[in-house]
Amino acid sequence: MKHSHSIIRILAALALVLALAGGTAWAKQNLTIASGKAGGTWYPLGGALADIIQTSVDDVNMAVMQGTGDANIIGVNNGMYTLGICFSFANADAVTGSNQFKQPLDRIAGLAALYTSPLQIVVRADSGIETVADLKGKRIAPGLRGTSGEVLVRNILTVHGLTYADMRKVEHLSYADAAMLMKDGHIDAFMPFTTVPAPVIQDIAVAIGGVRLLSLEADKFAALKEKNDGYSRYVIPGGTYKGQNTDVTCVGSNNVVICQKSLPDDLVYNMVKALADSKSRIAEVHKVLKTWSPEYAAGDIGVQLHPGAAKYYREIGVLK
């Protein structure tokens, strides 16, 4: 009997040792990616990126967090998030401590560029609002306060000699809430910084019988570029939305993924490789991503690439 008990104790001890060893060997890193609010492109995109990384990179768990562009940058810099989706022009401001950023953020690095999207200034097709200057005295929804899009709206108004004080009302709302107010006739202009075509704008256009998008003149775009070289020209073809019959020139920026600069090179290398190997999966998220490629990913991010990302891009020949 004693012999039997001894064997049982030995086996139990061995099982405990193996369990502890296995737990250590298979411990996973719990990482996060800050995306966007539900209803936008960033939220499902963040989910797709997290799933790709979790299933392709060993010993990684990825959780998706809802966020906003500038908050995502600050969160990655402060270690709240591992990765974050944001705009390239906002990264350029962040690393220099310009505009909405009160001090330089030096703990972020570039992972991948995803796609370009414009800020779209939407008004009713039957309104008398033809230009940005015509917004004076109107009710506008420029986005949630402090977000990348809202900062860009303020810059657009500035180069037209306007401020919020010139507006009848300024509503800092989510896109979904602003769209509802526009359908009900409670605001005159809705200004989402999002993909083309934007489902939320398509929905408004159908509901109110058509929309007009306000176009930027060349001199105003040049003035914006002087404020931030990360802005880019984006032309929305006529016919994209009901009531919008002519091409519209907007200001846009790359939507990108950044990471903590302190992440190990091999981890970031494997993340970028996983994304590049899953090109077809990324293309399924939204039609704007159908042409995404590793070549595009290495482009303008507004902040220096993480060494692990740069290593991968050099290996595949898209960086020298």
In words, what does this structure look like?
By secondary structure, this protein is an alpha/beta fold. It has 2 domains: 154 residues, Periplasmic binding protein-like II (D-Maltodextrin-Binding Protein, domain 2), CATH 3.40.190.10; 132 residues, Periplasmic binding protein-like II (D-Maltodextrin-Binding Protein, domain 2). Helices cover 40% and strands 18% of the residues. The chain is built from 12 helices and 11 strands. Strands 1, 2, 3, 4, 10 and 11 form a 6-stranded mixed sheet that branches. Strands 7-6-8-5-9 form a 5-stranded mixed sheet. Strand 6, helix 5 and strand 7 form a beta-alpha-beta unit. Helix 2 packs across helix 9, helix 6 runs parallel beside helix 7 and helix 9 packs across helix 12. The longest helix is centred in the N-terminal third of the chain and has 24 residues. The radius of gyration is 24 Å and the shape is globular. The N terminus is likely disordered.
